[in-house]
Design goal:
Length: 233
């Protein structure tokens, strides 16, 4: 009886410990909506297979995914070789806004952008990236704006830029302010935890060890109490 009571007391603490140890995992993107890339065919989102024509520059694309979330990365590209940009989506004439659908609400804590920089061809890092969240794809919350220095990635190379965010929603909107220059992006990824936080936590070794110690203390206390009752002083 006492053991049952002790377990009842320690259980909330144990669950809290497990929740604290839940950690971020990659978030799968169900679909993203955005304007297609510009001019040359390699600049487009060539594998996008939803609504909208990926062969038409700046066509509105929606309902599916393409090169931005396929896991494939581009390489360095010579300024005179548009074909080398195939893995990238390159915008110039539009200020791209991309709305991602995660299929369910997630607590997002990191956005990772893989971007190519080529100063001689005016392919630059965006001057700022604006992030906002929504549950219905219509009403978006407060905007978090990240200002870039332009040197996050070395010239003539591509690299990851990680942005730490705090936000929850099924939809995430990214505004990539290219400030009138070219912007070449080949992958965008997200990390976070499923929302609400009552989802099944990922119990690591530390969490399990803490849980075992708590359980052991609980059992010892209950046994000691029972012994006292059996052999009163
Ligand atoms: Ca890609
Ligand atoms: Ca492309």
């Amino acid at each position: 009886m006492k053991l049952k009571h002790a377990l009842k007391t320690v259980l909330p603490v144990l669950l809290a410990v497990l929740a604290i140890h839940a950690h971020a995992t990659p978030i799968s993107v169900v679909s993203y909506d955005m304007p297609n890339g510009d001019s040359f065919l390699p600049y487009h989102d060539n594998t996008y297979n939803g609504s909208g024509d990926p062969n038409v520059p700046n066509a509105p694309l929606s309902g599916s995914t393409g090169q931005l979330t396929d896991g494939s990365l581009g390489t360095s590209v010579a300024p005179s070789e548009p074909s080398g940009f195939y893995e990238y989506v390159l915008w110039h004439n539009v200020l791209p806004t991309v709305i991602f659908d995660f299929g369910a609400a997630w607590d997002v804590d990191q956005i990772s952008l893989h971007i190519f920089r080529l100063d001689p061809a005016a392919v630059h890092i965006p001057v700022n990236v604006d992030v906002s969240f929504s549950d219905d794809k219509i009403n978006f919350g407060l905007v978090t704006s990240f200002t870039m220095t332009g040197s996050e990635v070395a010239d003539r190379s591509s690299g990851w830029i990680d942005l730490s965010v705090t936000g929850t929603g099924r939809y995430l909107q990214l505004l990539l302010n290219n400030n009138g220059y070219h912007l070449a992006v080949d992958e965008i990824a997200f990390d976070g935890t499923q929302s609400p936080s009552t989802s099944v936590p990922d119990a690591g070794p530390g969490a399990l060890m803490t849980a075992l110690v708590l359980f052991g203390c609980c059992a010892w206390c209950a046994k000691r109490h029972a012994t006292k009752l059996t052999h009163p002083m």
